[in-house]
Amino acid sequence: MPWARQVAALAFLAGSIACLLACGAAPPSEDVAEALHFDSIVVDTHADTTPHFQDPQWHFDERHRSGHVDLPRMREGGLDVQFWSIYMGKRPQPGSAIREALERMDAVHELVRRYPRDLAFAGSVAEIRRAVAQGKIACLMGIEGGHIIEESLPAVRSYYRLGARYMTLTHSFNTSWADSAGTSKTPAPEHGGLTEFGEQVVHEMNRLGMMVDISHVSDDTFWDALRVSRAPLIASHSSVRAIANHPRNLSDEMLRALASKGGVVMINFYSGYLDPAVLPSLHTLYQRLEPQLAAIRRRTAGDTVARIRAMSTLFSDQRVPQTSLEKLLDHFDHAIAVAGPDHVGIGADFDGVISTPHGMDDVSHLPALTRGLLARGHSPEVVRNVLGENLLRVMAEVEAAAGS
Prior knowledge:
9-stranded parallel β-sheet, 47% helix, 10% strand
């Protein structure tokens, strides 16, 4: 079906949703859910697919049997906007993190250049909406971890100019200016939150119009960032502690505080952050594979592409524990109830985690989220906002607060 006719058909179907629900027709049909999903702007704020873009043997336009994201599956899943993560672990040599970040950001730009019919680079909400209206997937970037700026405000500014529209203040370890929540283990605090330089980083991000991301940070860093920032904050890929008491997730107090400043929590799809019953099995798997993982790290030191290939092969041969789609929906329900329906979105962490829920095995399954939220009684307006409008509203507010 030609693009214009497809959009018109979906819009017609979506227009019937409110009437169907208001008249007591329940649950909504699969056709109605699909119409709402594909008529909405669907935004994911975190995917770690980016290193694949530097691999000449990996092709974005091919459907892959492994991993979570490629062009065919993005189209099947109705994903309209993707923030590609710019990440690397600790780098001991000065300048090496910045160099690797520049190479990875360049790979995103090259990806967009190679697929102009399907992708468009976007640096603002207006550019996102224009790309989606043209039938293209809008591409942005997020810097995952403040260590990547190497204590340099000029690096923050340069990353912004290259297209980064958020930065996660820490990753799984403390920086010289902010404390982290860790991942499998919480590091001992070094600063009690943000240092004076950390506050300068937040101020500079506000001035630029770059969203301040508090996923991965310690509780003290969260509260400092909330106090210091002039603009709303995001949690680009975090779930809720009331259901899974993990330091990577947000407490109810944090959810309410984030919302009170206009921010949004983007729910992470990692089974280990969603379901405390699954986390021990995932830890056991990692412990069993640690000798092989260590060997891969030694063998591929300095070669990210080779490391990603080797780890993908290793995990593809494993039976990885998964939680249920219902547990993922529980996190959305709770965040909507506590933070409010205008303060929740999608931060799947695709290609950055080894386990997502059954029924959400890759990006092509995103319509299942829309079906599930409608089936749980959320209105079409709330679902549309969760799918993307909430994040776009925050991004617009951050843009409006920039410049001072």
